[in-house]
């Protein structure tokens, strides 16, 4: 009863920001991402008779407390599907800075969902696997698939119609995504707390929801048509509107650093020079820059010339779940 799975992170081009159900992790809006080949998590799950509790090693370090509790709660869902109480040893290697806005939870929970369900003997299709992964981390529902992926918010209270679907696979479009790493430290306001505070207190939130539904339709059309400037401009505007809602929250907060702003300005300067480049930012300070392969040298040189940039990691659209 042992299996190993790999999942890649994703970056949302149309943001997921807010839940209509906290316990089931049901989003307030449908959203869309691209899976990245540059960041991944490999997880091995071994269910064993005789274990008294679950255990978790992350990057060869023993994890306890709340983080272990989150893993155990997720495995309870897998055990419920299996119909038997049996505990597991979980080992993960995370090739993503944890909790710094680079979607480590997406790859981590997607890999855990795939490895644990296979190890325990469940035969889940991708829709069922996406629905399961969602209950650990919302964005993990999208990392089941490669390429461009829409997480459909659904309408049912039980969440059975809330899962991700692939819009186009990783071979559809050769674009580049540069993750500009400015900070690898754990952020002060978690994504979950940030969402909750924004939904409950930001007067900008209703407008965000209304516009995001329109953004989603526009960007899907742009992806299918391979209209890069349209895709990039919609993604960048959607990102800015999401972060504006955090400034309207009570108390207000932001994930940006001063370097975040400078990277955004650098990308805007590239566009003024005729280079189509666009940025997007999740719940963290790090910036992701979208551009075309032929512009890689100019984009990378501009970003590397900046102070306080710790790293630049180039990705292409990546693949979905794989088993090792």
From TrEMBL:
Molecular-function GO terms, alphabetical: diphosphomevalonate decarboxylase activity
Domain Mvd1 C-terminal: 180-305
Enzyme class, first EC level, given as a word: lyase
Pfam families tied to this protein: MDD_C, MVD-like_N
SUPFAM superfamilies noted in UniProt: GHMP Kinase, C-terminal domain (SSF55060), Ribosomal protein S5 domain 2-like (SSF54211)
InterPro entries listed in its UniProt record: GHMP_kinase_C_sf (IPR036554), Mev_decarb (IPR005935), Mev_diP_decarb (IPR029765), MVD-like_N (IPR053859), Mvd1_C (IPR041431), Ribosomal_Su5_D2-typ_SF (IPR020568), Ribsml_uS5_D2-typ_fold_subgr (IPR014721)
Sorted UniProt keywords: ATP-binding, Lipid biosynthesis, Lipid metabolism, Lyase, Nucleotide-binding
Region forming the signal peptide: none
Domain Diphosphomevalonate decarboxylase-like N-terminal: start-end pairs: 7-164
Its EC number(s): 4.1.1.33
Gene3D superfamilies in the record: 3.30.230.10, GHMP kinase, C-terminal domain
Record-linked PANTHER family: DIPHOSPHOMEVALONATE DECARBOXYLASE
Family (UniProt): Belongs to the diphosphomevalonate decarboxylase family.
Protein name (database record): diphosphomevalonate decarboxylase
